[in-house]
Design a protein that fits this description.
This protein is mainly α. The protein has two domains: about 5-90; about 90-124, no CATH class. The protein contains five helices and no strands.
Length: about 120
């Protein structure tokens, strides 16, 4: 991979990282900053219907799940940036062969080629 391609991937990763940081910040605010009354729009001290509480809990758990996934991708992006600095970006960590450009364009933070990713997924 030449220097220009590597720089393009680095810029793509930086853009992705910036977007994900905004998403994580928003999801964190949404999931953790609002108490149940505020998130439901109910500012009175009267109890909420049980179904509303269940819906609120589901939404909070769903948001926390999304937050966890976004944080995992942010970690992968950081590792990809490290691999760019080390000069190992674009090489499969399992088989040491080059990862196809098409895969890197879709998942610029990937550490594995398609074949190795499938094998690792089957093992899990």
């Amino acid at each position: 991979m030449n220097h220009t391609e590597m720089e393009n991937f680095r810029q793509h990763l930086l853009t992705l990282q910036h977007r994900l940081n905004g998403d994580v910040s928003h999801l964190t605010d949404e999931a953790l900053s609002h108490n149940q009354k505020e998130s439901s729009g109910n500012l009175s001290s009267m109890p909420i219907h049980m179904a509303d509480i269940g819906s609120d809990n589901f939404e909070q758990e769903f948001t926390l799940s999304l937050l966890g996934k976004e944080e995992q991708v942010l970690e992968e992006v950081a590792h990809a940036m490290d691999r760019i600095q080390e000069g190992t970006f674009g090489t499969c960590e399992e088989c040491q062969r080059p990862i196809p450009r098409a895969r890197l364009q879709i998942l610029p933070y990937t550490r594995f080629c398609v074949d190795c990713a499938r094998k690792l997924e089957q093992r899990s």
